[in-house]
Amino acid sequence: MNDQAEALRHLIKQREQQAEGRQTRILTVTSGKGGVGKSNFSLNFALTLQKMGQKVLVFDADIGMANIDVLMGIRSTYNLYHLLKQEKTIWEIVQEGPGGIHFIAGGSGFKDLLDLTPEQLNGFEREIGKLHGAYDVILFDTGAGLSKETVKFIAAAQETFVVTTPEPTSITDAYALIKMVKSMDYDISFKLIVNRAADLREGRQTAEKISMVAERFLQAPLPSMGIVPDDPLVPKAVKRQVPFALAFPDGAASVAIEKMAKTFLELPQTERARGGVKGFLHKMFRLAK
Q1: Percentage of the chain lying above the pLDDT 90 cut
Q2: 19 is a domain residue
Protein backbone atom coordinates (compact mmCIF):
# COMPACT_ATOMS: atom_id res chain seq x y z
CA MET A 1 0.00 0.00 0.00
CA ASN A 2 2.85 2.42 0.82
CA ASP A 3 4.52 1.61 -2.51
CA GLN A 4 1.27 2.34 -4.31
CA ALA A 5 0.84 5.65 -2.49
CA GLU A 6 4.42 6.64 -3.27
CA ALA A 7 3.95 5.76 -6.94
CA LEU A 8 0.78 7.83 -7.04
CA ARG A 9 2.50 10.85 -5.50
CA HIS A 10 5.32 10.53 -8.04
CA LEU A 11 2.78 10.42 -10.86
CA ILE A 12 0.99 13.49 -9.51
CA LYS A 13 4.26 15.44 -9.34
CA GLN A 14 4.86 14.63 -12.98
CA ARG A 15 1.37 15.85 -13.80
CA GLU A 16 1.92 19.07 -11.88
CA GLN A 17 4.97 19.74 -14.03
CA GLN A 18 2.96 19.07 -17.19
CA ALA A 19 -0.14 20.95 -16.04
CA GLU A 20 0.73 24.43 -17.28
CA GLY A 21 -1.91 25.61 -19.72
CA ARG A 22 -4.33 22.73 -19.10
CA GLN A 23 -7.90 23.77 -18.38
CA THR A 24 -9.71 21.70 -15.77
CA ARG A 25 -13.46 21.23 -16.26
CA ILE A 26 -15.61 20.99 -13.13
CA LEU A 27 -18.64 18.72 -13.50
CA THR A 28 -21.28 18.05 -10.83
CA VAL A 29 -23.56 15.02 -11.04
CA THR A 30 -26.68 15.16 -8.89
CA SER A 31 -30.24 13.84 -8.62
CA GLY A 32 -33.55 14.78 -7.04
CA LYS A 33 -33.82 11.51 -5.11
CA GLY A 34 -31.67 8.58 -4.13
CA GLY A 35 -31.71 5.19 -5.77
CA VAL A 36 -31.53 6.37 -9.39
CA GLY A 37 -28.01 5.06 -10.03
CA LYS A 38 -26.31 8.45 -9.82
CA SER A 39 -23.04 7.31 -8.24
CA ASN A 40 -22.78 4.32 -10.55
CA PHE A 41 -23.28 6.62 -13.52
CA SER A 42 -20.69 9.10 -12.17
CA LEU A 43 -18.03 6.45 -11.71
CA ASN A 44 -18.54 4.78 -15.08
CA PHE A 45 -18.81 8.09 -16.93
CA ALA A 46 -15.51 9.17 -15.36
CA LEU A 47 -13.88 5.84 -16.24
CA THR A 48 -15.06 6.17 -19.83
CA LEU A 49 -13.55 9.65 -20.08
CA GLN A 50 -10.34 8.19 -18.64
CA LYS A 51 -10.32 5.48 -21.31
CA MET A 52 -10.63 8.23 -23.92
CA GLY A 53 -7.37 9.78 -22.77
CA GLN A 54 -8.69 12.30 -20.24
CA LYS A 55 -7.13 12.68 -16.80
CA VAL A 56 -10.08 12.40 -14.42
CA LEU A 57 -10.57 12.79 -10.67
CA VAL A 58 -13.82 11.70 -8.99
CA PHE A 59 -14.71 13.58 -5.80
CA ASP A 60 -17.25 11.63 -3.74
CA ALA A 61 -19.24 14.55 -2.34
CA ASP A 62 -22.17 12.51 -1.05
CA ILE A 63 -22.28 13.06 2.73
CA GLY A 64 -24.85 10.49 3.72
CA MET A 65 -24.30 7.72 1.17
CA ALA A 66 -20.68 7.97 0.04
CA ASN A 67 -20.06 4.78 -1.92
CA ILE A 68 -17.76 5.39 -4.88
CA ASP A 69 -15.04 3.30 -3.24
CA VAL A 70 -17.51 0.48 -2.51
CA LEU A 71 -18.51 0.34 -6.18
CA MET A 72 -14.84 -0.27 -6.99
CA GLY A 73 -14.27 -2.79 -4.20
CA ILE A 74 -11.72 -0.53 -2.53
CA ARG A 75 -11.39 0.27 1.14
CA SER A 76 -10.47 3.93 1.52
CA THR A 77 -7.79 4.91 3.99
CA TYR A 78 -8.18 8.68 3.90
CA ASN A 79 -10.87 11.13 2.84
CA LEU A 80 -11.69 14.83 2.85
CA TYR A 81 -11.92 14.91 6.65
CA HIS A 82 -8.17 14.30 6.93
CA LEU A 83 -7.49 17.21 4.58
CA LEU A 84 -9.77 19.62 6.45
CA LYS A 85 -8.12 18.71 9.74
CA GLN A 86 -4.74 19.32 8.06
CA GLU A 87 -3.67 15.76 8.88
CA LYS A 88 -2.98 14.93 5.20
CA THR A 89 -2.17 16.83 2.01
CA ILE A 90 -4.36 16.73 -1.06
CA TRP A 91 -2.09 14.21 -2.77
CA GLU A 92 -2.20 11.93 0.27
CA ILE A 93 -5.98 11.64 0.11
CA VAL A 94 -6.10 11.09 -3.66
CA GLN A 95 -6.35 7.36 -4.33
CA GLU A 96 -6.12 5.31 -7.49
CA GLY A 97 -8.83 2.91 -8.60
CA PRO A 98 -9.25 0.48 -11.50
CA GLY A 99 -8.63 1.78 -14.98
CA GLY A 100 -6.22 4.37 -13.59
CA ILE A 101 -9.06 6.53 -12.26
CA HIS A 102 -8.20 8.82 -9.35
CA PHE A 103 -10.72 9.51 -6.61
CA ILE A 104 -11.19 11.17 -3.24
CA ALA A 105 -13.44 9.20 -0.92
CA GLY A 106 -16.46 10.81 0.68
CA GLY A 107 -16.98 11.22 4.38
CA SER A 108 -18.23 13.49 7.12
CA GLY A 109 -15.72 16.16 6.13
CA PHE A 110 -18.18 17.76 3.73
CA LYS A 111 -20.39 18.74 6.66
CA ASP A 112 -17.53 20.86 7.94
CA LEU A 113 -16.67 22.33 4.55
CA LEU A 114 -18.79 25.45 4.89
CA ASP A 115 -17.84 26.11 8.53
CA LEU A 116 -14.07 26.38 8.29
CA THR A 117 -12.01 28.83 10.31
CA PRO A 118 -10.06 31.39 8.22
CA GLU A 119 -6.87 29.38 8.78
CA GLN A 120 -8.51 26.12 7.73
CA LEU A 121 -10.11 27.81 4.74
CA ASN A 122 -6.79 29.16 3.50
CA GLY A 123 -5.18 25.76 3.92
CA PHE A 124 -8.02 23.99 2.14
CA GLU A 125 -8.02 26.42 -0.80
CA ARG A 126 -4.26 26.10 -1.10
CA GLU A 127 -4.38 22.31 -1.19
CA ILE A 128 -7.39 21.98 -3.51
CA GLY A 129 -5.90 24.63 -5.78
CA LYS A 130 -3.05 22.24 -6.52
CA LEU A 131 -5.51 20.13 -8.52
CA HIS A 132 -5.84 22.83 -11.16
CA GLY A 133 -4.27 21.64 -14.37
CA ALA A 134 -3.44 18.22 -12.94
CA TYR A 135 -6.69 16.86 -14.37
CA ASP A 136 -8.77 17.46 -17.46
CA VAL A 137 -12.01 16.79 -15.58
CA ILE A 138 -12.91 16.81 -11.88
CA LEU A 139 -16.30 15.19 -11.30
CA PHE A 140 -18.18 15.84 -8.05
CA ASP A 141 -20.70 13.11 -7.24
CA THR A 142 -23.04 14.96 -4.87
CA GLY A 143 -25.70 13.72 -2.52
CA ALA A 144 -29.27 13.34 -3.77
CA GLY A 145 -31.72 16.14 -3.01
CA LEU A 146 -31.04 19.66 -1.86
CA SER A 147 -28.78 19.77 1.18
CA LYS A 148 -26.96 23.08 1.58
CA GLU A 149 -23.69 21.39 0.64
CA THR A 150 -25.15 19.96 -2.57
CA VAL A 151 -26.57 23.35 -3.56
CA LYS A 152 -23.14 24.97 -3.19
CA PHE A 153 -21.51 22.33 -5.38
CA ILE A 154 -24.20 22.72 -8.05
CA ALA A 155 -24.01 26.51 -7.99
CA ALA A 156 -20.22 26.66 -8.14
CA ALA A 157 -19.63 23.96 -10.76
CA GLN A 158 -19.31 24.80 -14.44
CA GLU A 159 -21.63 22.04 -15.63
CA THR A 160 -24.28 19.95 -13.86
CA PHE A 161 -25.81 16.63 -14.89
CA VAL A 162 -29.17 15.73 -13.31
CA VAL A 163 -29.79 11.98 -13.25
CA THR A 164 -33.34 10.66 -13.25
CA THR A 165 -35.19 7.48 -14.15
CA PRO A 166 -38.59 7.10 -15.90
CA GLU A 167 -40.29 6.52 -12.53
CA PRO A 168 -42.81 9.32 -11.76
CA THR A 169 -41.31 10.06 -8.32
CA SER A 170 -37.84 10.38 -9.84
CA ILE A 171 -39.12 12.73 -12.55
CA THR A 172 -40.97 14.87 -10.00
CA ASP A 173 -37.96 15.11 -7.69
CA ALA A 174 -35.57 15.96 -10.55
CA TYR A 175 -37.86 18.80 -11.62
CA ALA A 176 -38.21 20.00 -8.01
CA LEU A 177 -34.42 20.14 -7.65
CA ILE A 178 -34.01 22.21 -10.81
CA LYS A 179 -36.87 24.50 -9.78
CA MET A 180 -35.38 25.08 -6.34
CA VAL A 181 -31.92 25.92 -7.67
CA LYS A 182 -33.37 28.23 -10.32
CA SER A 183 -35.44 30.02 -7.65
CA MET A 184 -32.16 30.98 -5.96
CA ASP A 185 -31.16 32.90 -9.10
CA TYR A 186 -28.12 30.74 -9.77
CA ASP A 187 -27.05 30.65 -13.42
CA ILE A 188 -26.69 26.91 -13.82
CA SER A 189 -26.23 24.92 -17.01
CA PHE A 190 -28.23 21.75 -16.37
CA LYS A 191 -28.17 18.70 -18.62
CA LEU A 192 -30.37 15.64 -18.19
CA ILE A 193 -29.40 11.96 -17.93
CA VAL A 194 -32.21 9.40 -18.11
CA ASN A 195 -31.03 6.20 -16.44
CA ARG A 196 -32.55 2.71 -16.41
CA ALA A 197 -34.89 3.30 -19.34
CA ALA A 198 -36.72 0.18 -20.55
CA ASP A 199 -36.00 1.23 -24.13
CA LEU A 200 -35.03 4.25 -26.20
CA ARG A 201 -38.63 5.35 -26.61
CA GLU A 202 -39.29 5.44 -22.86
CA GLY A 203 -36.06 7.32 -22.29
CA ARG A 204 -36.88 9.95 -24.90
CA GLN A 205 -40.41 10.40 -23.58
CA THR A 206 -39.03 10.93 -20.07
CA ALA A 207 -36.49 13.49 -21.25
CA GLU A 208 -39.05 15.33 -23.36
CA LYS A 209 -41.53 15.45 -20.48
CA ILE A 210 -39.09 17.03 -18.01
CA SER A 211 -37.58 19.36 -20.62
CA MET A 212 -40.98 20.63 -21.74
CA VAL A 213 -42.10 21.43 -18.18
CA ALA A 214 -38.75 23.08 -17.31
CA GLU A 215 -38.88 25.22 -20.44
CA ARG A 216 -42.51 26.22 -19.92
CA PHE A 217 -42.56 27.00 -16.23
CA LEU A 218 -38.92 27.79 -15.41
CA GLN A 219 -37.74 29.19 -18.74
CA ALA A 220 -34.83 26.81 -18.24
CA PRO A 221 -33.51 24.86 -21.24
CA LEU A 222 -32.78 21.27 -20.23
CA PRO A 223 -30.98 19.47 -23.02
CA SER A 224 -30.60 15.70 -22.77
CA MET A 225 -27.10 14.26 -22.61
CA GLY A 226 -28.44 10.80 -23.37
CA ILE A 227 -30.24 7.70 -22.18
CA VAL A 228 -28.79 4.73 -20.29
CA PRO A 229 -30.81 1.52 -20.78
CA ASP A 230 -31.85 -0.76 -17.95
CA ASP A 231 -28.98 -3.18 -18.54
CA PRO A 232 -29.01 -6.49 -16.53
CA LEU A 233 -25.20 -6.45 -16.65
CA VAL A 234 -25.09 -3.38 -14.38
CA PRO A 235 -26.33 -5.10 -11.17
CA LYS A 236 -24.01 -8.01 -11.96
CA ALA A 237 -21.05 -5.62 -12.00
CA VAL A 238 -22.22 -3.94 -8.77
CA LYS A 239 -22.34 -7.31 -7.00
CA ARG A 240 -18.80 -8.04 -8.20
CA GLN A 241 -17.72 -4.51 -7.12
CA VAL A 242 -16.27 -3.89 -10.56
CA PRO A 243 -17.42 -0.85 -12.60
CA PHE A 244 -19.58 -2.06 -15.48
CA ALA A 245 -17.63 0.04 -17.99
CA LEU A 246 -14.66 -2.23 -17.22
CA ALA A 247 -16.46 -5.50 -16.51
CA PHE A 248 -18.76 -5.32 -19.54
CA PRO A 249 -17.37 -2.73 -22.00
CA ASP A 250 -19.64 -3.98 -24.79
CA GLY A 251 -22.79 -3.98 -22.65
CA ALA A 252 -25.70 -1.70 -23.50
CA ALA A 253 -25.10 0.65 -20.56
CA SER A 254 -21.37 0.95 -21.31
CA VAL A 255 -22.02 1.72 -24.98
CA ALA A 256 -24.57 4.40 -24.06
CA ILE A 257 -22.19 6.08 -21.62
CA GLU A 258 -19.39 6.00 -24.16
CA LYS A 259 -21.63 7.91 -26.56
CA MET A 260 -22.36 10.49 -23.85
CA ALA A 261 -18.68 10.87 -23.01
CA LYS A 262 -17.89 11.62 -26.66
CA THR A 263 -20.67 14.22 -26.73
CA PHE A 264 -19.37 15.78 -23.51
CA LEU A 265 -15.86 16.16 -24.92
CA GLU A 266 -17.23 17.78 -28.07
CA LEU A 267 -19.21 20.41 -26.16
CA PRO A 268 -17.72 23.91 -26.52
CA GLN A 269 -16.49 25.34 -23.22
CA THR A 270 -18.08 28.61 -22.17
CA GLU A 271 -16.35 31.40 -20.28
CA ARG A 272 -17.87 29.93 -17.09
CA ALA A 273 -16.18 26.61 -17.84
CA ARG A 274 -12.77 28.20 -18.16
CA GLY A 275 -12.51 29.19 -14.52
CA GLY A 276 -11.08 25.83 -13.54
CA VAL A 277 -10.51 24.82 -9.94
CA LYS A 278 -9.70 28.33 -8.77
CA GLY A 279 -12.91 29.74 -10.22
CA PHE A 280 -14.88 26.91 -8.65
CA LEU A 281 -13.38 27.53 -5.20
CA HIS A 282 -13.86 31.27 -5.44
CA LYS A 283 -17.55 30.91 -6.25
CA MET A 284 -18.18 28.15 -3.75
CA PHE A 285 -16.82 30.04 -0.78
CA ARG A 286 -18.39 33.31 -1.91
CA LEU A 287 -21.76 31.52 -1.93
CA ALA A 288 -21.03 30.06 1.50
CA LYS A 289 -20.78 33.47 3.14
Answers
A1: 57
A2: no
